[in-house]
Amino acid sequence: MSPLRVTRLDQAPPYQPPLHHGVGALRLQGHEAGPTTRFWTGLSYYLPGGAADAAPTAEETVYVVLDGEVVVIADDREETLRQYDSVHLAKGQIRSVENRSKRPATLLVTIALPHGED
User: pTM of this prediction?
Assistant: First the structure.
């Protein structure tokens, strides 16, 4: 059994997700925050006007809105997600995310790892 591995928010490593602007991101588990076997988890802060440009998801992805609201666009459909709403995106699904509101939004992001990666 693996030891308990805790990442404190103030020690979570920042990272820059590609094709994102007006977004701050921290890695909570996985990659530079420590090894995981099937997924990684991060926290994304979308400033007003912040966005993730349209692009295919690299792997299966789940977003959970912890605070604020964002608009997720996929498959010619727009969904406004608010606190505690979530969305599942399949691998390769083209999506964009926008914060159209006047306040920041916080998302918990969980993304599957490619087979064999940690």
Answer: 0.93
